[in-house]
Design brief:
single chain; 327 residues; alpha/beta; six-stranded mixed β-sheet; five-stranded parallel β-sheet
């Protein structure tokens, strides 16, 4: 069963137009257990004690909002996604008719005043990059549930269980994690052509170089590994860059990156800088059509994983990979 199936029991599935929720509109969890509180969670920046069931939850990132929604809790405000609507398509499906406020200042630009306007009694920030800059101020507004080490190192499983514990519904968090992992396993079984196939994944190409995923420390690579794919020995041999799970290689090395499947993505439409390289065009995978350029939203669904985003990726991304790898 997909995660969407779980959420259907607690959410009306539909399409949302991003809007503003007023501070007077409460968003309680229908399933939170008030008897579980007080609860204390510990993160890299400090501890958060939640004395009673939270009623007004602010999610500082769209990934945090996704996890809350998978647990049956609709936040009163969510971090803006990097698209025109400010809401990812899988998030919109989970929101249904709900219209939380969209925080315009996110990550390093998060606005404490904007968050304060929502009168939160819980702030969720397991995937808030730059939280360390505003943590002290935000924690004065409400308990801040966040990552154990860094946002990039926090797995979606750990984030889900941490957030569920803060809500007083730890067992539901375990169920959501188990259902999502089961859905991934089912997808791997349904797409046997992917099993054991190698891939190279280019991210953020630049005129003279590109980043290549070189480890399952990268969240997207971890997901691709779960559906049966494996990174090439060339990729895993490359030295790490300042971005966990990625190496930076010059265009001269593109000729060494061939695999059963080639993936690439860019948030700024710069894929041409790698696609036009003769060495890239001569790769066997590219010549036979086993090349999949991922749109930003497709790549974000696995790079910033949550139960709803992975459920979406199983339908929208995995079939593309299956088709390409068989060419």
């Amino acid at each position: 069963m997909r995660v969407a199936g779980i959420m259907a029991a607690v959410l009306l599935v539909g399409t949302v137009v991003a809007g503003c929720a007023s501070p007077e509109t409460d968003s309680p969890s229908a399933s939170a257990n008030s008897d579980a509180h007080p609860v204390t969670t510990t993160g890299a920046l400090g501890s958060a004690t939640i004395d009673e069931r939270p009623e007004r939850v602010v999610a500082l990132s769209w990934t945090d909002a996704d996890i809350l929604l998978s647990l049956g809790v609709t936040p009163v405000a969510i971090g803006k996604a990097p698209n025109e609507s400010g809401v990812q398509p899988w998030t919109a499906e989970s929101l249904g008719d709900s219209h939380p406020a969209i925080l315009q200042g996110v990550n390093t630009n998060v606005s404490v005043e904007e968050v304060a306007a929502q009168a939160p009694d819980l702030i969720v920030a397991t995937k808030s990059f730059g939280l360390d800059n505003q943590y002290s101020q935000l924690s004065e507004l409400a308990p801040v549930v966040h990552y154990a080490d860094t946002p990039s190192a926090e797995t979606w499983q750990d984030a889900t269980q941490t957030i569920a514990a803060a809500l007083g519904i730890s067992s539901q968090g375990d169920d959501v994690v188990a259902q999502t992992e089961s859905a991934i396993d089912d997808a791997a079984a349904a797409h046997p052509a992917l099993d054991g196939k190698t891939y190279a994944f280019f991210v953020g190409p630049q005129p003279d170089s590109t980043y290549v995923v070189n480890s399952t420390d990268d969240a997207g690579a971890k997901f691709l590994d779960q559906v049966g794919l494996t990174l090439t020995p060339f990729a895993t041999a490359q030295p790490a860059s300042n971005i966990p799970g990625r190496a930076q290689i010059s265009n001269e090395l593109l000729a060494d990156t061939d695999a059963d499947l080639i993936l690439a993505t860019s948030s700024n439409g710069a894929l041409e800088s790698v696609e036009q390289q003769p060495a890239f065009q001569s790769l066997g995978a590219v010549e036979r059509g086993a090349y999949v350029p991922l749109a930003p939203t497709q790549a974000q669904s696995i790079a910033f994983p949550s139960p709803p985003s992975l459920d979406w990726a199983l339908d929208q991304v995995v079939p593309l990979l299956d088709s390409a790898v068989q060419r």
